[in-house]
Design a protein that fits this description.
The structure is a single chain. With about 400 residues, the chain is of the alpha/beta class. It folds into two domains: about 200 residues, Glycogen Phosphorylase B (Rossmann fold), CATH 3.40.50; about 160 residues, Glycogen Phosphorylase B (Rossmann fold, 3-Layer(aba) Sandwich). It is about 40% helix and about 15% strand. The chain has a seven-stranded parallel beta sheet, sandwiched between helices. Helix 5 crosses helix 6, helix 6 runs parallel beside helix 7 and helix 9 packs across helix 15. The longest helix is centred in the last third of the chain and has 21 residues. The radius of gyration is 22 Å and the shape is globular. The N terminus is likely disordered.
Amino acid sequence: MQSVDATATDDRIVPASARPEDAARACIITCVHQGFELYGSDRCFIESVRTLRAAHPTARIDVILPRQGPIVAALEPFASRVLIEPLWILRRKGLARRLTVELMALPIAILRALRRIRASDLVYINTTVVADYLLAARLIAGRSIVHVHEIPEGAVLTVLRGLIRWSGADVVFNSHATARTYALPPQATARVVYNGVAGPAEANRTTYDGSRPLRVLMLGRISRIKGQDVLVDAVAALPETLRRQVKLRIVGSAFEDEARERALATRIVAAGLSEQVSLEPFVADPAGLYRWADVVTMPSQRPESLGRVAIEAMAYGVPPLVTAIGGLPEVVDHGRTGWVVPHGSPEPITQALASMIADPAGWHAFGPAARARYETLFAEASAAAGITAAVRDTLRRAKAGIRPTLPVG
């Protein structure tokens, strides 16, 4: 695998008028996304489309989504058109049905994707689960990029790795942990580009000194991956005197799974934490939440490919508490910008929270250090340079008629 470090600074955004690929006619770029909300992968997609618009201001950029949702309004300033079309998406929930009963619909979906690829100079596929476009990409090799944001496991990983290899698409991984998971062959054209996040002009000032409850924020979709249940158990395990010194806000909704939300609410009440823990619905703009928080936590129990919430927290100068799984250790510098604790049980989180409360001065410098790390590794400019370089290289090879070496298995 050819790896390009996300921190490289020698790639610049060049005006479209200066590019040979845009000189004769407007470049046609199709961007395909499996989501429609405003969670992490959705916001990453918005930033990628914005980067493409900045790099190719005269291009026609068509965005393909599976359904209407709050993401549409955020995309409209950068897209030429936002189109709602059926996509053949592989989701964990319902995967068995997708690969059996619904398999007959796949050929039509591939033909639809093939027409889009044929009409485009470049197709940017956000995440590996858009199966119809990845399958069609091989039939017109050299025009597609897949941006990988997920670390699946087991049979799902086998299927998605096979899709990427079959597609022959150029690959952008959002972390080194993600790249290691997929283990593509050496001939694959791939690079690592950390997600860029738009941060506030000024970071928060560290104000926690132990005289009030510690404000802990967990932000994200309610799911078995994110670990909301483990976090509730961790707070419940604190000694009563310390428990009263914590205020935890869990903000987010489950994806088409109201039963999971109800179960989490029941767990909070059963643990006697109604005064300490609030469960709040998803919000489109989390800025006020980051301004409120002393600590932001990602207690993930399954692999996170990177950890956008932790990056956003650091942009606000808020130190993250994360588990040592997936790409999260690439985000947080343990003991300097936040805390990295083992996953699998509540105890490490309980111990970390108790330590924060007992010794506020011991982590007073974490916030400024977190902001500095964000500015160095995860600001928008670094990600924009990486995505722009990937697109430029794919367009250059496509224009030159250079076809990638496609693996056979």
